[in-house]
Amino acid sequence: MPTLYDNPLSRNGYKVRLLASHLGLPLHVVTKDLKAGESRQPDFLAKNTAGKVPVLELEDGTCLPESNAIVLYMAEGTPLLPTAPLERAQVLRWMFFEQSQILPNIGLARMLKITGRDTQRPDVYAQRLEVAQDSLAALERHFGSHDWAALGRLTAADIVLYAYASVAEEAGIDTSPYPSVVAWRKRVEALPAHVKPDWGFAA
């Protein structure tokens, strides 16, 4: 069984666990205490030189860091990641958008907010918040006429977009201007295989 090194606060790790649930893939989840510096210890740096979670360790010992790389690997050969070039590109388009627009803005704004550093670095927080709102506006325009990110059905694109779009409020963002995004989030949450962010961790 593959091992996922993760932390409950990591929405990047949540992407992997949410995908695993949709695919019915078993994972052994190992919690890394980031505050205690466990991801910076030599044994973990040997698995990911960047010292970040998540990291997927395969049964043969091969380690794969970076959440979207893990998602692509796990989704390969499943309906969540098509093989036809144009269809695949449509899924990848939104996965790239998540990495360039959603993660670094909603993600950082959320981290600043929940750690209380939004008041210590108000200029950084405000800038990230502004770009995050622009990114949500782009999603709003898309989901205003599409039920899903790509291909008219759930794909890996929805999995990765949902991870941070679902916690926009935790970043201090008012989501009332984005009703189509909120409706899409509810569609994702209504799927039978949907799991909450703490899924996979030992009780």
UniProtKB/TrEMBL annotation:
Keywords for this protein: Transferase
Domain (GST N-terminal): residue spans on this chain: 1-82
GO molecular function: transferase activity
UniProt entry tagged with the keyword Transferase: yes
Residue ranges of domain GST C-terminal in the record: 84-203
Taxonomy, superkingdom: Bacteria
Entry keyword annotation includes Kinase: no
SUPFAM superfamilies hit by this protein: GST C-terminal domain-like, Thioredoxin-like
Matching Pfam families: GST_C, GST_N
Similarity annotation: Belongs to the GST superfamily.
Protein name as it appears in the record: Glutathione S-transferase family protein
Organism: Magnetospirillum gryphiswaldense
